[in-house]
Amino acid sequence: MRLPKLSKLELQIMDALWSGGPLAIREIQETFPQKGRPAYTTVQTMVYRLEVKKALRRARKIGNAHIFEALISRDAAQRRLVDDFLGMFGGRMQPVMAQLIEAGNLTTKDVADAEKLLRDLSKKRKDA
Amino acid sequence: MRLPKLSKLELQIMDALWSGGPLAIREIQETFPQKGRPAYTTVQTMVYRLEVKKALRRARKIGNAHIFEALISRDAAQRRLVDDFLGMFGGRMQPVMAQLIEAGNLTTKDVADAEKLLRDLSKKRKDA
DNA sequence: TAGCATCTATTACGATTGTAGGTGGATTAA
DNA sequence: TTAATCCACCTACAATCGTAATAGATGCTA
């Protein structure tokens, strides 16, 4: 698996690493809001599993605690996520966009940004 | 669960019902491409589970075969899907859009359509 | 009506995910 | 040095999903 599938909780753990640099399990755990924070060993289990999936690795040790760092990029993980998501819709963008808009998740600004990004991107591709 | 979470395969099954009206298991199974089509009993199992989740129900019988019909709308299911998906991104639209565009999933036309839909929608809301 | 085809219903199993307890070793604070 | 913490590691377990086999009932056909 070059790009392992990550669950929501796994994503949240990776997010801690992506945002906060190499962290110990305890630190990862504490990035969760107190309300509904998973147990230390729950985080630990997920970290171990992410290690098996090669999504992160032990970078070094401080005292007897391991410090973990991400091995896959946020971008790559998100790409995978988006792909799976689109797969759910049979790869058709249209219903996805419609849904996003109707649910009010997508604002005028989001669309404007998208437009700009598209323009920039097509320009870059022409240049290259 | 008013809106049960549906997996990809479950979605595909519901899709058959949404598109093709009430169907028997055999008919649902046959909506899958020959290549990689799941076994009859696999579809059967999923249909039974969808029944437990109240996503569909037995509408009537033809011979000894049950005919199933959807109980939840495609729209509602997709809404749930999108919500979960956004939850994966912490609810932030921006990285989602960026990802979609950079991966080339989103075309100029998609964005134009989105724009139009947004305009129509905001108009409707003003009118109401 | 006998037999074949088809369907239903039940059961099973491995993988993944979320959840966490327990045990024992390492660190640290007193 | 000893007790309180903290951490690592292992094990467990329920739920969900995808996969399907098997067995028994029903219906269609010759």
State which percent range the strand residues of chain A make up.
5-15%
| Backbone structural class of chain A | mainly alpha
CATH class descriptor name of the largest domain in chain A: Mainly Alpha
CATH level-3 fold name of the largest domain in chain A: Arc Repressor Mutant, subunit A
Question: What is the number of helices of chain A?
Answer: 6
State the helical fraction of chain A.
55-70%
Shape of chain A: elongated
The number of domains of chain A: 2
Contiguous runs where pLDDT drops below 50 for at least 5 residues of chain A: none
Which sequence of SSEs, written as H and E, runs from N to C of chain A?
HEHHEEHHH
Query: Would you identify the CATH architecture of the largest domain in chain A?
Result: Orthogonal Bundle
Question: What gap, in angstroms, lies between the N and C termini of chain A?
Answer: 31 Å
Largest sheet of chain A, described in full?
3 strands, antiparallel
Topology at a glance:
2 copies of one chain form a homodimer.
Chain A: H1 8-20, E1 23-24, H2 25-30, H3 40-52, E2 56-62, E3 65-70, H4 74-88, H5 93-102, H6 108-127
Antiparallel strand pairs in A: 1-3, 2-3
The structure holds a DNA duplex (30 and 30 nucleotides).
Can you describe what's shown?
2 copies of one chain form a homodimer. Chain A has 128 residues and is mainly α. The first copy, chain A, has 2 domains: 8-70, Winged helix-like DNA-binding domain superfamily/Winged helix DNA-binding domain (Arc Repressor Mutant, subunit A, Orthogonal Bundle); 92-128. Chain A contains 6 helices and 3 strands, in the order αβααββααα. A 3-stranded antiparallel beta sheet of chain A has the order 1-3-2. In chain A, a hairpin with a 2-residue loop joins β2 and β3. The model of chain A has no long low-confidence stretch (mean pLDDT 93). The interface between A and B is large, with 39 and 40 residues. Chain A binds a DNA duplex (30 and 30 nucleotides) through α1 and α3.
